[in-house]
Write a structure and sequence with these properties.
Layout: H1 5-17, H2 20-27, H3 31-45, E1 50-53, E2 56-59, H4 61-78, E3 93-99, H5 105-115, E4 119-125, H6 129-137, E5 143-148, E6 160-175, E7 195-198, H7 208-216, E8 223-226, H8 231-239, E9 245-248, E10 257-260, E11 268-276, H9 282-301, H10 304-311
Parallel strand pairs: 3-4, 3-5, 7-8
Antiparallel strand pairs: 1-2, 5-11, 6-9, 6-10, 6-11
Length: about 325
């Protein structure tokens, strides 16, 4: 067997859909056919790309690497034969991108501008994913990086499409002198008496998924500080011992802050690329996807706490 573009599209479809069955429906094939295709691809590569779960599938660390490479190859393949407009009077296409709080944003923008030099990319920060959907629906932005959660897929009309970039666990950020500082992973229940920093309602399921995880762990946070500032400000307050917070698994901690995985990974978040169907070409979508997944892979390579968790050490 040799890897072909159709195999890479199967991998992308499974990752985007979060299950083999849903990917089969999108691709117009039977579930057994896609399952067989996936087994052949994994056998060819020599390692599993997905973990099988009751609710579907999730990418392994190796799968994240392969997916980023696959999206990059597909974007380059789709760009074959295309040429940017030439001449002094050429008008560059403008792409308006909105983005929620995500550590992948900077790397995505840098790579997207490099891959699409003929596109003028503008970026606006929008916290709530529900607001991002409204902007897309009204045609005020063309594409966006938003968030949703397992079982709470981003809701929008048929005018908008979306694909999952990555689903990652939420970790916890603690002050370096925290009583649990020597633990390799932290139980959510052991943080029942801590003060928490929690960001506001994002219209997509947060902070409901956090409170549900706390309830399942047998407590409800007693002291909650609502916080919507930047990540450095949040980390500064954690470093000063004012509280703890769930954070993205790829967060790079500052001095006096520790980032640790939660026992049982009770909270997950998915970042998605959403776009207007009538306003963004498929080639641009694939370029954005490739840029986003490459940005995430780069963050993983610089997050030892995530690497230790993924390897089980």
């Amino acid at each position: 067997m040799e890897l072909e573009l159709r195999h890479l599209r199967v991998l992308c479809a499974i990752a985007d859909a979060g299950s083999v069955g849903r990917a089969a429906a999108v691709l117009g094939h039977s579930q057994p056919a896609i399952s067989t295709q996936l087994r052949r691809i994994e056998r060819f590569l020599g390692e599993p790309l997905f973990e099988r779960r009751a609710s579907g599938v999730a990418l392994t660390e190796y799968g994240m690497e392969v997916l980023g490479q696959a999206r990059d190859v597909l974007a380059r393949a789709d760009a074959i034969g295309s040429r940017p407009q030439a001449g002094a009077g050429a008008v560059r296409q403008t792409l308006r991108l909105a983005a929620t709080n995500s550590s992948i944003l900077s790397g995505t923008v840098v790579r997207a501008r490099s891959r699409m030099p003929d596109v003028a990319l503008t970026v606006s920060s929008v916290y709530a994913s529900s607001t991002i959907v409204e902007l897309l629906e009204r045609g005020e932005v063309d594409a966006a990086i938003a968030a949703d959660y397992p079982g709470l897929t981003l809701r929008h009309s048929d005018a908008v499409a979306h694909r999952g970039i990555v689903t990652e666990p939420c970790f916890v950020a603690l002050p370096a002198r925290h009583r649990l500082r020597y633990q390799s992973e932290v139980s959510l229940a052991d943080l029942a008496q801590d003060a928490w920093f929690v960001t506001p309602d994002d219209g997509a399921g947060w902070p409901g998924v956090f409170y549900e995880a706390c309830e399942a762990a047998g407590f409800r946070p007693a002291a909650v500080h609502e916080f919507i500032g930047d990540r450095l400000q949040l980390q500064a307050m954690i470093a000063d011992g004012l509280g703890v917070s769930l954070v993205q698994a790829t967060l790079r901690p500052i001095a006096d802050v520790l980032v640790k995985p939660l026992t049982g990974t009770p909270v997950w978040c998915r970042y998605v690329l959403a776009w207007r169907r009538d306003g963004v070409a498929e080639q641009v979508v694939e370029s954005l996807f490739g840029a986003a997944t490459a940005a995430h892979h780069d963050l993983l390579s610089r997050a030892p706490h995530f690497q230790a968790w993924a390897s089980g050490t």
